[in-house]
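Sample pair:
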Amino acid sequence: MGKKLILLLAALLAMCMGAAAEDAPVLVDRINHPEAAFSFDPETELLEIVFPQELNVDSAVIRCGGQVMLIDCASRAMAQRMVNLLEQLGVTEVDFVAISHPHYDHIDGLEQIAQAVKIHELRVGHPAGETGNLDKALAVCKKYEIPVSWYGDGDVWSLGDTRIDVWLKGDDAWGLNDRSAVMRLQFGERTALFCADAESRLQRRLAEVIPPEILDVDVMKYPHHGKSALLWDFYTATSPVFAVITNNNGRSALDSRTFLDKNSVPWAITVPGYVRLRTDGATWLADRLAMDKPIVVNK
């Protein structure tokens, strides 16, 4: 029985019996099925991942155990959308920001976020001077007195009870997208993979060197804003049951949407509203939050 069929049967059983089936991944997908009924025990600790309404850039808020991290911080033009999300979530302090790679659409929004909330640390996996965008971000850290640390392949972080494995598997000669840091989050039995802008070479490398039982995940932040289909070996190794595409619904994401539909993987794009994923370690709940403020694009 395939993983996705197990998922569907487990979800249906959970809805009918009011309990999640053991030993099977469970996803309650209110984005594609708003009628799905489910709620967490209000006393249970959750891992929460929220994506702002952004187009062709990356940033996400991760919360667990009273701690907050950001993976990437968008472009300058889109950063206000992250600021609005942080305000709506009531976040005033961020324990750390982890930059997957220093392209402008992942790092240039740092200063606007630093103006809005207290950032306690910036974590970077690429050397100073890698890009002008990184050097500007380091200058922002100096201005706002944000400590900077450098991470490496195989580092393990924690956020509450969430374990975060960090992989830097690209060769030095590869382009920056294929030297992105890929981050795997695990909370209880549930897992999520942030693929940054991994293109075919990095996807192939990950499929070759990461044990299959580790690379097999529940939720995937689709690589490179969904601008191309997943490499087949990487897709079969990860076998996601839900994907988030940091894109609008335009033609640049058409291939990724078609690929996911063909393989019966439900997905969400980061428009409209905020895509939110929560888990108690046994069940994923995917839904959307309405925005308190209208969208803003800074010129």
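Residues 3-17 form the longest helix (15 residues).
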